[in-house]
Amino acid sequence: MSQPPFTKIIEALPTTVPFVGREAQERARMKPFRARVGANESVFGPSPMAIAAMAEAARDVWKYCDPDNFDLIHAIAAFHDVSPENVVIIEGIDGGLGLANRLFVNPGDAVVTSDGAYPTFNFHVAACGGQLFKVPFRDDKEDIDALLSTAAAQKARILYLTNPDNPMGSWWSSDAIEELIAQLPDGTMLALDEAYIDTAPAGTAPPIDTNNPMVLRFRTFSKVYGMAGARIGYCIGEAAVIRQFEKVRNHYGINRIAQVGAVAAIQDQAYLSETVRRIAEARDAIVRISKANGLRPLTSATNFVTVDCGRDGDYARAILQGLLERDIFVRMPGVAPLDRCVRIGAGLPEDMVLLEQVLPEVLASVGVN
Amino acid sequence: MSQPPFTKIIEALPTTVPFVGREAQERARMKPFRARVGANESVFGPSPMAIAAMAEAARDVWKYCDPDNFDLIHAIAAFHDVSPENVVIIEGIDGGLGLANRLFVNPGDAVVTSDGAYPTFNFHVAACGGQLFKVPFRDDKEDIDALLSTAAAQKARILYLTNPDNPMGSWWSSDAIEELIAQLPDGTMLALDEAYIDTAPAGTAPPIDTNNPMVLRFRTFSKVYGMAGARIGYCIGEAAVIRQFEKVRNHYGINRIAQVGAVAAIQDQAYLSETVRRIAEARDAIVRISKANGLRPLTSATNFVTVDCGRDGDYARAILQGLLERDIFVRMPGVAPLDRCVRIGAGLPEDMVLLEQVLPEVLASVGVN
Question: Does A7 sit within 8 Å of B103, measured CB to CB?
């Protein structure tokens, strides 16, 4: 019997996965978590209108989606005041980042990101055979100047930036991003991941310039819209660039229920505002609880708060472990020195009560002295 | 301003899409179709248990899916009596075919399919830079001998076969497929697309051999399970090969509502059987109506009937157009000599009544004399 003919790229790749899922952790510990604040999901859920639309759409799921995503693209275009030709619907930002890599990254091409930033982006670069250059965070922020100089030096095809960023929750102003765009090296695309933009202070997102072919703006319904499991997001860019996604995207790949839900969700901005308010309350609670326990919460523009535990990665990992053991699902940055922190998502009031209860126990158990 | 750095493969590709969607046609004609029997969907819908599970899951869609697809993989493994390690969940067979191409096709590598078979497979080959060799159908069936000899001559990485096939609805016996597997050239993977297997006669699907690393079996919830819009299917293969999908699949890419729906659907085999029965009734109706109008329906193992209109492609296209104008959404094969046919999906009783009403009008209008 012969051997499967894997490509050179596949042969060279390790079988790694970006994250261990919460469910796998629950199966291993043989009990569910009580607070689920580890995956930057929105515990506040989707708009009731989106829920109703999705529940209603279940019986129509025998139909393929509209491969043109006509209704959703038009709703998004209207919301952002851009043309429908500037919008492509993606299977979450994860899916969109995969497509962007396939559009721009030949095997061996350089791609630049921040060390400790979103691992799924790196996963997609690897699967295309790209060569990844990682720039350290600086003062817990993505280091724009170093990202730019690395992109120029390596002739990077893509510069990936998250704003606000994950896992630190920090952000750059619109002015800083516009300056970055102005200074992009020749032939470098900016993949600007704005998954967390809905919770950022006003003045964080630069105006959308659909005349610039070198910038792709990634947005999602997974975070504040509360639809992570629906796998739906979008990318905005110059029309001719957006059209190229047609060459690689899975045209019938969008879930029909998600399409319907997203249309309802984007039209319910009142619910989005209310969610942003509840997230802000939860962030305040995390800040208060962390400080009361002698930890240092970082200022956050996202739906989570990254909390500096004040010592090294081992110490933060011990705290993380203590929280997990006490039924609070959280995650933490994977790379030093960011890994001195744990990342706690905005939770329901009862989640925050649980955090307040168990954090002192956890700190006592890991020896805060 | 610089230019986007598209890859060589992307630069070389035309911006084509596999199919124009039904919705785009409806927008162009500015009215909906009355019978939707063109996309091989199941008008009979999903299991009521799946509908209920999906409707219930809508409010939980704020959670990402379980990236391990644990519950669904275990349900599928139990159903097929294979190990969970032999199963990977895919975003419909479309998604799975995309991943298979990424696993096996370097730019320039040969891939073999049948001329006129599923265009989405070809789309994925093109996006990987593969070189596609198309073997003509023979007697309205995929030509196994010619596929094998072409695969051997071209050192194909993948041989793609649908059984039963689309768009002709014909099929090979289990014995013929096993013989094909035994004769696969060294280094050629068989991608066996069994989207339509649930409506095929007993003895069509060969036993699943999870010891053979050269065969991938693709199954879907899109057809008889009535969940096309959910984008969920699976691939069964040897464990070490299945594990390689971890390198390219979008781990959080499965819609959570679809996961839940698929678990419910596969556990409701009574509903599946009932759907198969209703499809058979509808096929009988299409056969009867076609014959009564002097056309020649081909024997079908799928949820559609391909009807030989008895003349050339222009004639069949005129009939297709006549059906579309009379509110019946149908499609037809794109390649001669298959394009002497139109493809009519199993419809609801009222869809079949409409067909019976309008087909004589259509034939009269295109000049059957």
Answer: yes
